[in-house]
Amino acid sequence: MSESQGTTGSMVYKAGAVTGDEILVDGWELIVGLEVHVELATATKLFSASANRFGDEPNTNIDPVTLGLPGALPVLNRHAVELAMRIGLALNCTIQPSTFHRKNYFYPDQPKAYQISQYDQPINIDGFLALPGGKKIGIERAHLEEDTGKSTHIGGAGGRIHGSDYSLIDFNRAGVPLVEIVSRPDIRTSEEARQYVTELRSILVAIGASDAKMEEGSMRCDANVSVHKPGMPYGTRCEIKNVNSIRSLGRAIDYEMRRQIDMNEAGETVRQETRHWNENDGRTHTLRSKEDADDYRYFLEPDLVPLDPSPEWIQAVRDAMPMLPGARRARLSASTGQPADGEAVMVVVERGQDDYVLEVAAAGGDVGRALIHVKEGFADEGATPTVPAADLAGLTRLEVGGQLTATQAKTVLAEIVANGGGDAAAIAAAKGFEAMDTGALEAMVDQVIADNAAVWSKYCSGEEKAMGALVGAAMKASQGKADGKLVTALLQAKRTA
Amino acid sequence: MTPRTAIQIAAGVRAGTLKAADVLEEHLARIDARESDVHAFNLVMTDQARAAAAAIDAAVAAGNDPGPLAGVPVALKDNMCTHGIPTTCSSKMLQGWKPPYDATAVIRLAAAGAVAVGKTNLDEFAMGSSTENSAFGPTRNPHDLSRVPGGSSGGSAAAVAAGFASVSLGSDTGGSIRQPAALCGVVGVKPTYGYVSRYGLVAFASSLDQIGPFTHTVEDSALLLDVIGGHDILDSTSIPARQPSLRDAIKQDVTGLRVGRITDLPEGADPDVAERLEAAFDALRAAGATIVDVQVPAFSYGLTAYYLIAPAEASSNLARYDGVRYGLRVNAADTNAMYGATRVAGFGEEVQRRIMLGTYALSAGYYDAYYGKALKVRRLIADDFDRAYQHADVLLTPTSPTVAFPFGSKSDNPFAMYLCDVYTIPTNLAGHPAMSVPFGTGAEGLPVGVQILAGTLGEPQMFRAAAALERAMGVSK
C-alpha cells in the first residue's frame, strides 16, 4: 500500500495494512485531519430561490439575495437543512439546536462581504465515519454554510488575483448550500485519508445529499497535516488547499509529511500556515502564514433565527434514511462469505448492485457466483441491471450443477448481458455447450497425453510451463467444453500417479 | 381643500366622493410651493404618482375597491427599495442605483391603494438624528426652517408635517422615527421588532431596524400598521402570528390601564419637555388610567450599548458597498485599493466613523470587552423592562430631550448628537414597540412629543394610551 509519489527520501511503513496502529516514517507519525466541503443537491440555494445548478451560463442563477443587493434578506432552505441532518445521521453525529454567524471578509466573489456560516453552534457534532476496514475516524462537526461565487482572474501569473489584468465573477455558485465536514485528527496515513474521502463520497451519494464530484468542485477537501514523534505532542500543522482529486489528496499529504519530517530533521521549525497544492510540480507552497490570517469578526447573523429542528422532524429524516454503504457491505459480506473490504464486495456495493446480487440469491442462484458475475460482467449496468435476477440465478445453477465450465459460463453471461436477459440453459444449448462427464474427460486427457508425448515428459520432469500447452490442447480437443480446472487436476493427478 | 388624514381620504375615494387625482394634485401643489425650502425629498415621483392615482380613480369608477388606503399620498424613506426607482439612502455610494425589486412594506402599501409621491431624505444610511448627514443636503423643519427636523427619518417626518404627503414610512433603529416625529409634531411609531417585514429596507443595524409610520393621527398610524404589518416569508425575523387590528384596539379607552413612570430615567430633558410629560401623565390619569412608579435601572446604559451593537452590525451590513457589483466605484491600482478609494469617496464622515467603531468592537481581542459586553447589557435592559411591565402596561417618557434644535448646533459633536436618542434607544435594544405622540408645544412654540413604550407586542395598549393623549389634546385645543 505504500506509495511515494511526489516525495523525496525513503518512506517505509512498518505495517502493511491500515490498522490504526502506530505507523512510522523514519520514526515520525503522520497526523491528518480533513475538512471536506460538499455542495448539497438541493433544487435552490441556501437562502434564496435561485437554482442550484452547475454548468449554467454565468450569472443566470442570481437574485437580490445572491448578489447581496441592499435590503435583501436570507431565508433558510428547509431541504438544505434536511440534507445536512441526513449527513449528520449518516456520520453518527448528534443533531443539536444551531445558529448562523457572519464571517466577515472582503473578496470580490463574496457578494455581501460576509459568508453566512454556522460557527460555535453547528447543526451536527461528535460523530464518526467507519473506514471499510473498521477503523473509526472521528467527526468533530458537520455544519451548514453558503458557497461563494467563482472568480476567474485573467492575465498575470498562476490564475491568482494578484497581478492579474482583470477578473470575471460568476455568482451562480454564490449561496449554494454547503456542508463542511470536519474530521478529528485521527487519520494516520495518506491511504487512510483516501479511504476516508472515498467512503464519505459513497455515503453522500447514497443518502442523496450531494453528487460529491471533486472534479466539478461539488466536493472539496482541505487537509490539516502535521508530524510528531510518538509520545510527543502533535506538531505544528499546515492546512493544504487546492486538492482536486482523491489521488492528489494522497500525493499532497505524502509530500507535506516528507517536507515536515525533513524540516524537523534538519532542525528547522514548521510554521503554521496555509499551503497550496500544485498538481504540476507535486509540491505544496506557502499561501499565507498564520500572522496574515483575516480577523473574520464573527457575530450572530441577525437576519436569521435559531435553527431548532423538532424531534419529530429529525425522526422523519432518520426514518427516510437509506441503508448506508458500510451496512450494505456488511450484509453482502455475510451473504457471500467474502470480506467486507474485499474488492468484489466493495465494487458491487459502490455500484449499488448488492441488492441485485441478493435478489439473484433469493431467486435460487448461487450467491458467491452471482457476486463475481455482477462484479465482472455488470460494470456498465446501473444499480438496477436489466437482466432479470432469475436469469442470472439460472446461470449460476448450471455452473453449480457442473453443466457449464467457467469459460462457458462467461460466454453465456456476456450473451445474457448483451440481450438484457435470457435463459442460460437455452443459450448454452444453442452454443452447443454441454459439460463432459468425468469418464469422457479422462479419456480425452489420456488421448492428449498420447498425442503430445514430448510435452508430457517435459511436464513430468518438472517443467511446469508445459502444463499450459497440455491444458490448451485439451480445451481445443473438447471444443471448449472441458472445464479447465478439472483438466488441470487430472493432469496433476496423472503425473504423481 | 381635501381632508388630510388617510382615514378621511380613503373613505372619500372609496365612496367616490373624492378623486385620488385631486388629492394628489393638492399635495403636489404644496410640494411645489415649499419643497425647495424644506427639502423633504430626494425624489418626487410626480409621473408615477399621477399614474397610480388615475388607476385608483379608474378602479373606483369600475366599481372596484382599491383598498383601505385608496388614494392616500404616501412618502417613502429613501432606504426602502422601490422597483426601478432610485433608492439612495442619501449616500453617494448608492446615487443612481435602481433596485430590481420592491420592499415588502412598499408592496403592501400599493396593494392597499396608497399612492407613493416620493422618496424622502435621511441621514446617510439612517445614521444620525438631524438629517444633516445626508449627502444631498439637510431637510429643514417645516415648523422653523432654521431648525433640524430630527433624524434619521427627517424627510419622512417633514413631508407629513408640511402636507407633502398624508402619511409616510420611516425606519427606526435607535429613535429614527420617534425623534423626528416629536420634532416635527406628528405621530411616529416604531413597532415591535418583527412586526413589519424588513425585506427591502436597506439595513443599518439588522437586529434593531424596524419600519413604521408617520401620520397626523393615531388612528392613521393604526391603519398603516394594520396594512403593512404581518408575517412575510421573505423576512425570517418577521413575527409569524397574526396581530389584532390596532384600529379596533383604539376603540377601547384607558380606564384601568396602568401607566408607568420610570423613576430612574436618565436626566437631561429640557424643562419645557419635562413639563409636557407631566401634562401627559395628568391627561391619562384624568382619562381613567392609573399611574404607577417603576424602575428600569439598565435604561441609562442603553446609549453606550447601542453605540457598540449598531455600529458593529453596520460595519458588516455596509461592507457590501465595495464597488464590485453596483453603486459607486472609484478605480484604483488593485482590488484592495479600489475598495478603499470607493468607500472613502462614497461614505460620509458619520458612516465612516460608525464603520470603524463597529469593526473595532468586533475585532479579535476586543470583542469580549466591547461587543460581547454590549450584548449582555442588551439582555439586562430587556430583563429590566420585563420586570417593569409586570407592574405597568405602558411607560411614558419624553421622546427627545429637546425640541427641534438649530442647524449645526450638534453636528460638530457626535456625542451631543447621540444624546438625542437617549430615551428612544433602549426600546430598540429590547425589541419593544414605542411611539411618539405630539403633546403640545415647548420653547419657541415648537412641537413636543411624548413617548409611549410597551412590552413585546404591546401595540394595542400603546395605541390606546396614544389615542387618549390625542383626545386630551383635542379637548384642550
Structure, briefly:
The complex is a heterodimer of chains A (497) and B (477). Chain A has three domains: 24-317, no CATH class; 325-430, no CATH class; 438-496, Arc Repressor Mutant, subunit A (Orthogonal Bundle), CATH 1.10.10.
Spell out the key features of this protein.
heterodimer; A: alpha+beta; Arc Repressor Mutant, subunit A; ten-stranded mixed sheet; three-stranded antiparallel sheet; 15 strands; disordered N terminus; B: 477 residues; alpha/beta; Amidase signature (AS) enzymes; 16 helices
Descriptive account of the structure:
The complex is a heterodimer of chains A (497) and B (477). Chain A folds into 3 domains: 24-317, no CATH class; 325-430, no CATH class; 438-496, Arc Repressor Mutant, subunit A, CATH 1.10.10. Chain A has helices at 78-90, 190-206, 246-265, 311-319, 325-336, 343-350, 354-362, 367-377, 389-400, 406-419, 424-430, 438-451, 453-460, 466-477, 484-496; strands at residues 24-25, 28-39, 94-95, 101-104, 114-117, 124-130, 136-146, 150-154, 166-170, 177-183, 219-228, 238-243, 273-278, 283-289, 299-300. Chain A is of the alpha+beta class and 497 residues long. Chain B has an 11-stranded mixed sheet with strand order 1-3-2-4-6-5-10-11-9-7-8, with helices on both faces. Chain B has helices spanning 6-15, 20-38, 46-61, 104-111, 154-161, 178-184, 218-228, 246-249, 271-286, 302-317, 335-346, 349-362, 368-388, 414-418, 425-430, 459-476, and strands at residues 41-44, 73-77, 115-120, 167-172, 187-190, 210-215, 258-262, 290-294, 394-398, 434-441, 447-454. The A-B interface holds A 64, 67-76, 102, 104, 106, 108, 111-114, 161-162, 167, 169, 295, 297-299, 302-305 and B 79-81, 87, 89, 94, 97, 99-101, 103, 198-203, 205-207, 233-237, 312-313, 315-316, 319-320, 322, 324-326, 334-336, 339, 359, 362-364, 367, 371.
